Amino acid sequence: MFELTAEEASYSRSQIVTLKRGENLKYLPYAFTEHGVLMLANVLKSKSAIEVSMRIIDVFILLREQIGIHEELRDEIEVIKQKVNNQSKNIELVFQYLDELIEKKEKPTPRIPIGFKLTNKK
What we know:
62% of the residues lie in helices and 3% in strands. It is mainly alpha-helical. The relative contact order is 0.06.
């Protein structure tokens, strides 16, 4: 069990049944970790308390699964970003080569005239 910070407590406040922000918040609330709930379930003897504790543990398990899914998605997004960065570098290289080819076409080499020269001798 641990005490929430002021920021965490502000996120956990209900919009309907609690006081306005900053009003009469004498003490910061306490929260249980997953292991704390499990220990509490082992200590409590009533059937309803055990059921509630087990449901809370199920919620912790679902949260852990969701975090794992998001981590997998983040890793996949990072791989895609790397591929996109590599492809954008390749595209820049292709455009650089195209620019070089265009510059070569704009600067034609001087041609040497061939054939007969007509001279006007009178």
